[in-house]
Structure formats: structure tokens, C-alpha cells
């Protein structure tokens, strides 16, 4: 018999040979162990060396859902109760049945239908988008590990259920050590230097993090056979043009900053790793994301900055006439798209935006609506080189991921204002 150090799942023999039989067997065993005949298996993941299952069971109050991890004694019990089993039974050091992550019905959404619980790495998981994504992954029952150097992310955004490594993606040895230890199914790569002005001032520094750091993650994915690499790229900073909008994925790419250039360069690396080594990936090109926890120095952070000034009674600075437009997408919608990308077979780029152009004056109006008062504004000269218009065509993502943005701008701004107020207190 083989002993695993970190295994927390039942392992049954001959799984590959007879998938159906194995699934049936797991169901019977769990029913017996929990003494509950009403248990239903929703879905599961079966690989060479493990069975991970998701089950539902009726309770008095609601249909709960739980991932059952069977540890030493239960594995032993299986073995004893099923003497007909041949092959190896694996176990861990602990000795009891451990239910984790009870998910309430209202927290379930269709995106997880058909998705088995997986082990996910979220680089940049202490940041704005990353931490929102981590929360959603955990709600859905996935096991999450975060790698972040806290350069702009915050410790307080870390989901306590996730395992956290304070690590720099530029440290290749550390990255490899984490991958060897954890064995991820999916990697969401969000860690990045995201300040466009910093990228202009220090392109070498930017490239070190956003290209070379990313390559450390990608190399380890390949080495440890990660199922899929989900790369969070940018639509707002990659296309550069202002004709024939909304920009679809085939729009010419002429980034106007090292930040955009490096995101594009990394996309090309992904394509190369896929074509040459078979690494599966999806790139999500995000529009201007906004919502709770946004880092005010980042790409497209105008909503965060305006909400902050409005809540703190500061005058809002507008560069130019305020009629410049962007495509503002709510962070919760972005997290949902990233999660849906896990189940898709698509390889390549997808725009994640609303396909709606909104100007800064409209953003201010929405802010005023949600704080119920007018704000003071002050106009400054237009910033040199600033893009006038930007909006993404999201039809490919809609079709491929069956995804669409759900949160209307007014509602998203309201949530952001509420969060900004909570920070002031
Ligand atoms: N916010 C937007 O509108 C937007 C738009 C398009 C793309 N993106 C992309 O989304 C991702 C997340 O951005 P965000 O807005 O949440 O910003 P963020 O700054 O809140 O998140 C980035 C995270 O990466 C971490 N990080 C930075 N350098 C690191 C390093 N060397 N090693 C480990 N961790 C490191 C930071 O500490 C932070 O937690 C980025 O890749 C960004 O380029 C954001």
C-alpha cells in the first residue's frame, strides 16, 4: 500500500478500466458511510490516481452540497467493507471523515454545472480581481492556493480558506517549489505590474514581472502537467486603435504602452507553448474592470479613484472634457468569465467586456445617483497620448463561454460606493 502525504480523497483501484462501475461504487460506499440513502452524486473527477466527488444531500432546511474527503479510517472502512476490491487503497495521516466547504444553494450558479472540484492556483490572488475570483472559486467548492508578493495586493483581501504563499513570481526556484508541492489542475495568472505609467517609466522592470515572471509560472505549468492556464490579459491596453469599434479579437494590436506590449508578448508565448508543447490555455482580454477592492494605481482605475474622492468629499479631477469613453465591466462578471473558462475547450483569446461605451461624465452621474448628492468637478488639460475611445466586442466570449455581463453600471457603482464607504469607517 502506498501512503500519500497530502492526499485527502478516496482512491479506488481499477478506476480507468471501469469508470461507470467505479462511480457506482463510490456512491454506494458514501451512502453507506454516511448512512444516508438520499445522497446524490452531482459530478466528480476521476484521474489515474484519485476520485474526487461532489455530492448533494437533502437536509431539513435546504439542499446542501459538500465535498467529502475521506481520510484514513474511511478509506480503511471502504477496504474492509468491500473485500472484493483489488489494487491499492491510499490513505492520509488523519483518521476521520472530513466534510468541507458547505455551499448554500443560493450561492450556486450555473457556471459550475459539470465542473468537478479542482485545485487552482491564483497568482495575484491578494489583488483586486484575483481576490474576487478566489472568493468565487471557493464558494464553488474548489481548492485554492494564492501566490502573491503583496506589492499592490492586500493581506486583508486573502480568503482565509485559501492557502497563501507570499512569493514573487520572478523567483523561479520558489515558483517551482510551490508547484512541486501543490500539484495544480488550473492556474489563473493575474499577478502583474499593472500601472501603465510605471511601465512607461521602467519598461525593463515591467518586462521582468509581466513576461519573465509569467514564464516562470508557465514553465512550471508545463512541467507539472497543469490542465489549463487561464491568462488575464487586457483588451483596453492591447488594441490601441479607435476606428471600427467595438474591437473584436482580430482587431489590429498596436499597444500604446510597455504594459500592453508585454501582455501581448505573453499571449504569444502562450500560443507558442500550446503549439509546441501542447499546453492548454485561454486568454481573457479584459476591458476596464471596476468594483470593490480595486487598487487605485492600476489600469482603468478611474471608477475606484472617483468613488474614493466622492465618498471623501474631494473635488473630482477630470482630464479633458470627460467625454472620453471606456468599456466598464464589473469584477464579479469577470470572475464568472474566468471560472467558465475552466470548462471550455477553446484555445485562444476572448474579450471580456460589456460592449457598451461609457464616458466619464456618465460614471460621475452614476456615482452621484448612488451617494444621492452632486459632486464637485474640476477640468484639467487632456493627458497627452490618452486614448479617446475604447470598447470591446464580447460576442465571442458570449458564444464560447455562454457568459454575459450581468451587473448593470448603476448597480456595480452602488456596490463599489458601499465598499468605499466601508473602507472609510
Ligand atoms: N483592473 C483592470 O481594469 C484590468 C484590466 C485588464 C487587465 N487586468 C489584469 O488583471 C490582473 C489583476 O489586476 P488587478 O486590477 O486586480 O490589479 P492588482 O494590482 O490589484 O492585482 C495584481 C496582483 O498581483 C500581485 N503582484 C504584482 N507583482 C507580483 C509579483 N512579482 N509576484 C507576485 N505577485 C505580484 C500584486 O500584489 C496584486 O495582488 C493583472 O494581470 C492586470 O494586468 C486588469
Automatic annotation (TrEMBL):
A molecular function (GO) term: transposase activity
Superkingdom in the source lineage: Bacteria
Entries under InterPro entries matching the protein: Epimerase_deHydtase, NAD(P)-bd_dom_sf, Transposase_17, Transposase_17_sf
Domain NAD-dependent epimerase/dehydratase stretches: 121-353
Domain Transposase IS200-like: start-end pairs: 7-97
SUPFAM superfamilies: NAD(P)-binding Rossmann-fold domains, Transposase IS200-like
Single GO biological process annotation from the record: DNA transposition
Gene3D superfamilies the UniProt entry points to: NAD(P)-binding Rossmann-like Domain, Transposase IS200-like, UDP-galactose 4-epimerase, domain 1
Family: Belongs to the NAD(P)-dependent epimerase/dehydratase family.
Name of the protein: UDP-glucose 4-epimerase
